[in-house]
Amino acid sequence: MEEKILKGTTTIGLTCSDGIVLVADKRASWGTFIASKRARKIFKINDIVGATVAGSVGDAEALMRIMQAEAALYEMNNKDRMSVNAVATLMANILQGNKIFPYLVQILVGGFNGNAGLFSLDPIGGLTEEKLAATGSGSPMAYGVIEREYSEESTIETNIPLALKALSAAMERDMATGNGIALVTITKDGFREYQDADIAEIAKNIVKK
Question: What pLDDT shows up at residue 176?
Fold first, then answer.
């Protein structure tokens, strides 16, 4: 049963010279059954940090609620926002502390506060800092596209089409990935969630190329 919960999804995080790009599909699957076509897989932690989730929907949403509350409490007490390093470290500690009954999730945490930071977390708190990362069942296909063209020195404007292309490749070959794309960027201007029309316009231009 748990194995079925963990099979679906593709999420991608890219560090850029001017921020972070996070993308994910919208399909939630239960084995071969498509349980939802509007699943939320990218969450805002605060104005400068976001996270993508792959795995159990219930575990992911519970963990995100905890982190949003912790970030809000930190900001209230310190008059400053929790950094991406702090969010990732706290989340890793929470996951490690629950390893006997683990959260069945794989997380990417990305943020920007002058410099872009991206961290990958496993279900029991393993934490690695990355320049690019993908999670979920479609990640092998996504990596195949990203690693040919990605540069951490590129801007968000350059890397958004690459992230969408990589996710589209996963959607073409992984049956547990699909039903639309969610796109978020984090820059000096804050957390931006793109609308479907914006994503469609960017994707249309990719096809034209």
Answer: 74
